[in-house]
Amino acid sequence: MVTDERRQDRDNEDADEGAALSAGEARLRDEFFAGPRIATFEDHLDQLDAIANSTRFMICYLLYEDGDTTYNELNDATDKVGNALNYHLDTLQTAGLITQSKQRVDGQERSIYSLSILGQKLIEPMIELIVEEGDLAEQYT
Where is there biased composition of kind Basic and acidic residues (predicted)? Predict the structure, then answer.
């Protein structure tokens, strides 16, 4: 799931942070990644990186709320076109947060995007947190 470029960036960040985090990272890896896993620690960081962008979060939110969505619908909703939209969709797909399939819509083959189970599991608590924070803010204003 992790691209070579993103892994290199993360390795560079880790080198910059020095040994101070090595004990913490070792503890984290021992506690969560000691046994068999489908995704690595780096894969999880990539998922968080992917959704931490406003356009990609919006795409995930739209897919969460609306379900299967065509490329054109995402284009209209995000005001991103061509390579800009493709970049965000590719990033989300690489992180395993969305899936793409081809379906016939109105007699034409179209790309249909869906939120993966992993994407649902990641965005749902984030949406709940945003809603809860709004509710709490209303109580204190």
Answer: 1-10
Domains of the chain by range and CATH? 4-140 (1.10.10.10)
Buried b (16+ CB within 10 A) or exposed e, 31-69: eeeeeeeeeeeebbbbbeebbeeebbbebbbbbbeeeeb
What integer best gives the mean pLDDT of the chain?
Answer: 85
**Contact criterion met (CB below 8 Å) for 53 and 47:** no
Q: Does this model's pTM top 0.70? A: yes
- The amino acid occupying position 71 is Y
Is the model's pLDDT at 10 over the cut of 80?
no
Residue with tokens 């931490």: 52
